[in-house]
């Protein structure tokens, strides 16, 4: 990773924590729809970056959200999980181009990008809400929260990606 990438990731990390804590945690539609844009950091972490560092930073990112939200570690666990599973999802979403390290997530084909983002967001939300609810009695609530918050997060993530991709051209 170059020093420019390190600076961009530091700024992205801090900005996403503040946006999530100060703005997005106050959005709660219907009692169970809440966007979690902070995982944008994990989605856009450089592919040539250290995978152990990504897992550690993802844990810190989730822990930061947990501290502000007083949620007992569910964000840290879910973030570390998707950071760990990310190489498998990248290989599934981008195929051979990921193996040859020729993938640029911001410039990838739309279907590949949507597959990648949707997979990681839904996995994150399922793990997070499973740990938060932690009951077999509330499986419909778990699935409803995962689906609707996931859709909201996916739309917000795609809009953010489009917004910042156009700005960088």
From TrEMBL:
Spans traversing the lipid bilayer: 6-24, 36-61, 73-94, 114-134, 146-164
Superkingdom of this protein's organism: Bacteria
Entry keywords, A to Z: Membrane, Transmembrane, Transmembrane helix
Official protein name in the record: Rod shape-determining protein MreD
Native species: Aequorivita xiaoshiensis
